[in-house]
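Hi W.,

Here's what went into the run:
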Amino acid sequence: MTLPTFCDWLSNTPMSLKIQTVLWIIPAVQTVHILCVTIVMTSMAMLDLRLVGVAGRQQLMSRMVNRFVPWVWWTLPILLISGSLLIIGEPSRELLNPYFRAKMLMLLTVIAITLVVQLRNLKDSTFWESRKLLAGCAGGISLLLWIGIVTAGRWIAYY
Amino acid sequence: MIVPEFLTWIENTHVATAIRVSTWLFPTVETIHVLSIVIVVGSITMLDLRLLGLASRDRSVSELHREIIPWTWASFACAVVAGSLLFSSAATKYYANTPFRLKMMFLLLIGVNTLIFELGTFRNVKSWDREKRTPLGARLAGGISIVFWICVVACGRWIGFTK
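Here's what came out:
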């Protein structure tokens, strides 16, 4: 089955038809999605700016990791569920959209970076403190990726 | 100058026309608007959760306030500039739009809430700075802020689904 046929099939399932016909579902789900983005994005921005050394310098990096990364893992599932509902409602708008694909690619990359940051910190709480350059790179790339994710997310609507 | 004429004047400025005519300007300004709002809402929620005693409980309120509020204001300024540019591209349409009006109303209410908190409860923060359970006024301000900001985001998203 090719991707366009899959989109066709998905858009004819009862659940998709429901999302398509009940007018308030998509705006409501998008609102939940964006509110969750604010939580993840701000948490990551706080941590990334600390890793880069721009903000929160009086606080230990390991403490910042422990403080902010859990918010990401708790909010990500809600983002995945709300995002999936949007895909089920309009499969071809998302799955065949280059902005959507770029967004997913950036998301997977940033999840990998966040996992490395957290796991290294778990093993050795001074790991990032003693590797300022590496920490700066991880934080900077992560922040740029999150900005890219939000940007691509908004541009999906304009493809 | 009366309102409809003023709105038409806005729409006919060079900037507004450029945004309306271009294929990429509107989404670009909109992306900046969304990114700014994300940081505004996310940062203010951190303070609100502290006021509610639900997060950052080991940190002093005034310290958190001093760290967070400059970021909130800076992003808010970006959001207002970008939002005004979006508004200018179709001023007459947005002015008459119900979700847009509701969004502005909630922003106004947030302003009032902030003012009451900053000039009232927050003035004697020194006496409850490290308390996990903050005074009722502070908890109210935090709760109201979270609810109203959710309304702002919901109305903002709703605008995109109306004519």
